[in-house]
Design a protein that fits this description.
Blueprint lengths: L5 E10 L2 E11 L4 E5 L6 H9 L6 E6 L2 E2 L5 H6 L2 E3 L12 H13 L6 H4 L3 H13 L15 H13 L5 E5 L7 H14 L4 E5 L3 H7 L2 E6 L2 E6 L1 H6 L1 H14 L1
Parallel strand pairs: 3-8, 3-9, 6-7, 7-8
Antiparallel strand pairs: 1-2, 1-4, 4-5, 9-10
Length: 252
C-alpha cells in the first residue's frame, strides 16, 4: 500500500481538563479527498490547527509524505506543500481578484513585496493568476475589486490563493460555511476539478457536499475518531448514525 501523504499517530491536545483531540490516528491517501466530520465541539478545528502548525500537540506525531513535521512551524509546512485556505495571505479588498492571486504567486516565488508594483503587470505572476482564477470558476472576475465579490466568490478566491503556493495537501475548514445553494454547488464543482491532482482534507458540515466529494470520511465525536471508511460505510455505520448523522436527519 502506498504511503499516505498525511499520517497522524496518537495525536492528543488538551485545554485544561478538556481533551480536544484524543489519540487521533489519521491517514490521508495521496490524491484523495478525505472528509472530517462531527458535531460542534468534536475537535475538528483543533485537529486542523495541529496539522497546519498553528496549535502544538501535547503528544503524538504528524508526518507529511513520510517527513516528521510535528514540531515544524507554519511557514516550513507551507514550503513542504501543506496549505490551509484561510491561512494564506489575507484577501486585500481594494486589490482586484487577479492582483490578490498574483501576490500569492509572488510569495511562492520568494520575491519581496517591494516589487509588487512590477508584479501587478508581470506575466510571470498574472499568467498563473488568471489560470488559477479560471480553475476556481472566477475567470470573469479578474478585474473586479475583491470587495465587490460575493461571500462565495471570496471563498473561491481564497482557494485560488492557496493553490498559488503549489500545495501537495490542502486543508479546507468549512469552505461552504455561509454559502447559499448555488454558491455551494459551484464550490463542490471547484473541488471536484481538483480531486485527484491535489490531496484535500475537508472539514465540512454540508453532508451533501461531503458525500459528493469524499473518498473516505473520518468521524470525530468528543475528540475521538469513532469511525473511518468510505461514504457508503459511514452511512451504514450505526454508531455514526446515532452520534451524528441520525441527529441531522431527524432535524432535517
Amino acid at each position: 500500500m502506498a504511503e499516505p501523504i498525511l499520517a497522524t499517530r496518537g495525536l492528543i491536545k488538551r485545554f485544561g481538563g478538556l481533551v480536544a483531540t484524543d489519540q487521533i490516528d489519521l491517514d490521508v491517501a495521496a490524491g484523495s479527498v478525505h472528509a472530517l466530520i462531527g458535531p460542534n465541539g468534536a475537535g475538528k478545528t483543533t485537529l486542523i490547527g495541529q496539522l497546519s502548525g498553528e496549535i502544538r500537540p501535547d503528544s503524538g506525531s504528524i508526518r507529511l509524505e513520510g517527513r516528521d513535521i510535528t514540531a515544524a512551524p507554519v511557514h516550513k509546512r507551507c514550503r513542504l506543500g501543506l496549505a490551509r485556505s484561510f491561512q494564506i495571505t489575507s484577501i486585500f479588498p481594494d486589490f482586484t481578484a487577479r492582483e490578490n492571486v498574483a501576490m500569492a504567486v509572488q510569495s511562492r516565488l520568494g520575491h519581496s513585496f517591494r516589487f509588487w508594483r512590477r508584479a501587478k503587470s508581470d506575466p510571470a505572476r498574472t499568467g498563473p493568476a488568471d489560470a488559477l482564477l479560471a480553475e476556481v470558476g472566477l475567470e470573469d472576475r479578474g478585474n473586479m475589486p475583491a470587495a465587490a465579490l460575493s461571500h462565495g466568490e471570496h471563498r473561491q478566491l481564497e482557494i485560488a490563493m492557496a493553490l498559488a503556493t503549489a500545495p501537495r495537501l490542502l486543508l479546507l475548514d468549512e469552505p461552504m460555511a455561509g454559502m447559499g445553494v448555488e454558491e455551494s454547488v459551484r464550490m463542490v464543482e471547484t473541488l471536484q476539478r481538483l480531486k485527484g491532482r491535489i490531496s484535500i482534507l475537508l472539514v465540512e458540515h454540508d453532508m451533501d457536499a461531503v458525500f459528493a466529494l469524499a473518498d473516505r470520511i473520518t468521524v470525530l465525536v468528543y475528540g475521538r475518531a469513532i469511525a473511518t471508511g468510505t461514504p457508503a460505510e459511514i452511512r451504514a455505520n450505526q454508531e455514526v448514525r446515532a452520534a451524528y448523522l441520525g441527529a441531522d436527519e431527524e432535524e432535517g
